[in-house]
Write a structure and sequence with these properties.
The protein has about 675 residues and is mainly α. It is globular and about 90 Å long. It is built from 33 helices and nine strands.
Length: about 675
């Protein structure tokens, strides 16, 4: 809350007809503990210390106007105020006084030209929004999808077993996979259903893994957005067992997986988990596990947990003959104090959660580590099965402060994802806390999880921000790799400028539109990038180049090669006029891909040979493009170009030379 209080204090001072610069210094001095991190982040620790020293000089009225150093500090204090300004704090008097301060700073030679233009840009937007009564703008969100590799599937599903054990695949599993995949191939969405512990999560994981192996691109998020995608793509819901193929318009098939696993598969699951857990399983015990499970793998997992806990306590135990008896046994296996903690923890319907969410005593730790799977690289725990979580479930008030846990976890993004997947209602709380501490790196991966699983939440909290502030946050988000966050902030920014109308900031709106499409393309959402640019024709030549480039690359990604070729040819023409070698070569490499897609292989080979020949002799700053082009040439011709090896080595990139195959 420190930054907000500082902003309110400054707004009150500057928005007063009889304000003085001493009031600005007082605001900074009063709230320094809360805003020091921002100044350190912006100006460095040394300058932050110098600012703090000036604040504590105790300058009296009149002395401020005589000190050049104090005026410089005032300019820095006000720059933070302007950069973080909320429109609800703005007023005509505040704008007028800031313009007056700007003129004074310019006269005193404190305000460089670039910073003067920055102040003028922010003040222009504030004036226009006040005139048009656009204090806050509703709308703007990220596309609630994130593209994943097969290695990402366990944390995205909250199913950690694949990190520890290979999954069992027999006739029963293969039957379900065949049925699910057949539906996906036909463009029909699938929802898996079944009794608790029937294997829905494991089967979802295996289905997605197989689809990736077959060349599908898999996204986690809102399956309703699958209708906007095309090609071999599928979207799954991290909150359920729902998969939707690209282009699906609502057709859905429900598949019941209860009892689908064979006896052999259930036995294999028991043997693998038992070996991993150090539990010896006799033939009679194995038979009892399968017989009492009713075909439910969740029962097998939970029963093995019971047996493992018995061994810890050096007790002789038998496999319970029903699910309810098994749950009662699990509660009886643990110390009462730990049972109470697990009961509270079970209120979070997540299968997976950050490790810091529950603290246990030394006498409980060994038991706790038996009950849960722990994946240290991501700082996550997981219940072994839905059955083991249900053994401790009851309904009481939500007992945790999740923000503090996810913020301090080993991997803030994965921790936030694990909680938001099952408890989206905490998204606003997590986002509000993260936004209040944006100078902390952890805030950005947290917000990335929020905008993906709870789109529009961050935009609602920032709806009264200036576009300048949002653009600054976009830059940081991109640097941090939080591209979904960048998309939501850009979406909100374009909506703000659109709501203002007119031509004054029209060029900025065009630039933001291109940037938004660029982010969507980087997020592997080419269909969305094309929709953003639909009917869009910027006046600025550099923006036309970027928009044609994005269109061409996006069309390549959805296999529309002829249209891609047309747009890339136009981008190439514009890049050659601008005389940018890097842009020109990047576009020419994409044109090779378009030619191949169109079946014009001979032209593609000739063009890639020409590109490689030119780049071999080019400066080393283009070595990444040389490597990219050389890989394509090697794929087309089936052999190394040793001029490429010489160039990569000359430029000091032995790793790229090795990847290319120079040392084979």
């Amino acid at each position: 809350m420190g930054l907000g209080e500082y902003l309110e204090c400054c707004a009150k001072q500057i928005g007063n007809k009889s304000f003085s610069l001493e009031g600005i210094l007082d605001c900074a001095r009063l709230h320094w503990d809360s805003i020091a991190g921002i100044f350190t982040s912006l100006y460095g620790s040394k300058r932050a210390e110098e600012i703090y020293s000036v604040l504590n000089q105790g300058l009296k009225l009149g002395e401020v106007e005589e000190s050049h150093e104090v005026f410089k500090v005032v300019s820095e204090l006000l720059e933070v105020f302007l950069g973080s300004l909320d429109m609800t704090l703005a007023s005509p008097i505040l704008v007028s006084n800031l313009e007056m301060i700007l003129n004074i700073l310019v006269e005193k030679g404190i305000m460089p030209e670039d910073r003067r233009r920055l102040w003028e840009r922010i003040l222009l937007e504030v004036k226009l929004r006040l005139e048009k009564n656009v204090l806050w703008v509703e709308g703007g969100s990220a596309t609630p999808l994130i593209a994943l590799s097969d290695e990402d599937l366990p944390w995205a599903l909250g199913y950690l077993w694949p990190y520890f054990l290979d999954q069992v695949e027999g006739k029963g599993v293969e039957g379900v996979l065949k049925e699910v995949q057949s539906s996906i191939y036909e463009g029909i969405a699938v929802r898996l259903k079944g009794t608790p512990g029937s294997g829905k999560l494991a089967l979802t994981y295996l289905t997605l893994k197989h689809l990736i192996t077959e060349g599908y691109l898999v996204y986690a998020g809102d399956p309703n957005y699958a209708q906007l995608l095309s090609g071999d793509k599928v979207v799954f819901s991290p909150r359920g067992y729902y998969l939707s193929p690209a282009g699906n318009k609502g057709d859905i098939k429900e598949i019941d997986v209860s009892g689908r696993l064979t006896l052999e598969e259930l036995k294999e699951i028991a043997l693998r988990i038992g070996a991993w857990d150090g539990v010896k399983i006799s033939e009679s015990m194995l038979g009892a596990l399968v017989e009492h499970s009713g075909g439910n793998p969740g029962f097998v997992e939970a029963a093995l947990l019971h047996l493992a806990l018995c061994e810890m306590s050096q007790r002789r135990c038998e496999v319970p003959d029903s699910m309810e008896k098994l749950k009662a046994k699990l509660r009886a296996d643990l110390p009462p104090a730990l049972v109470e903690k697990l009961t509270n923890l079970s209120l979070i319907s997540a299968r997976c959660f950050p490790t810091g969410l529950l603290e246990v005593g030394e006498d409980e730790e060994d038991f706790f580590n038996r009950v849960f799977l722990k994946y240290d690289p991501l700082g996550l725990y997981s219940w072994r099965s839905l059955v083991s979580r249900e053994a401790f479930s009851r309904k009481i008030a939500f007992p945790y402060n999740p923000y503090e846990v996810v913020f301090s976890s080993e991997s803030p993004f994965h921790s936030a994802w694990s909680l938001l997947s099952s408890s989206p209602r905490i998204g606003s709380y997590v986002a509000a806390k993260a936004l209040s501490e944006l100078y902390e790196e952890q805030s950005y991966p947290l917000l990335e999880a929020v905008v993906t699983l709870s789109p529009g939440t961050v935009a609602r909290l920032l709806r009264s921000s200036t576009v300048y502030r949002l653009r600054v946050l976009v830059g940081v988000a991109e640097k941090m790799g939080s591209l979904a966050l960048a998309e939501e902030l850009l979406s909100l920014s374009t909506n703000i400028l659109k709501s203002m109308g007119g031509e004054v900031l029209a060029e900025e709106l065009e630039a933001l539109t291109v940037e938004l499409a660029e982010i969507q393309a980087k997020r592997l959402l080419p269909e969305l990038a094309l929709r953003t640019l639909s009917g869009f024709s910027p006046r600025d030549e550099s923006l036309r180049l970027r928009s044609e480039w994005i269109r061409g690359a996006s069309l390549l990604n959805i296999s529309e090669y002829e249209r891609a070729f047309t747009h890339l040819q136009e981008a190439l023409r514009l890049s050659q006029e601008g005389n940018s070698r890097r842009e020109t070569y990047s576009i020419r490499i994409l044109i090779v891909d378009a030619l191949l897609g169109m079946g014009r292989r001979d032209e593609a080979v000739k063009e890639i040979e020409s590109i490689v020949k030119e780049l071999v002799r080019a400066e080393c700053t283009l070595v990444d493009l040389l490597f990219e082009a050389a890989i394509r040439e090697k794929q087309l011709k089936g052999k190394n170009n040793y001029a490429v090896c010489a160039s990569l080595t000359r430029c000091g990139y032995p790793d790229l030379a090795g990847s290319y195959g120079c040392f084979s």
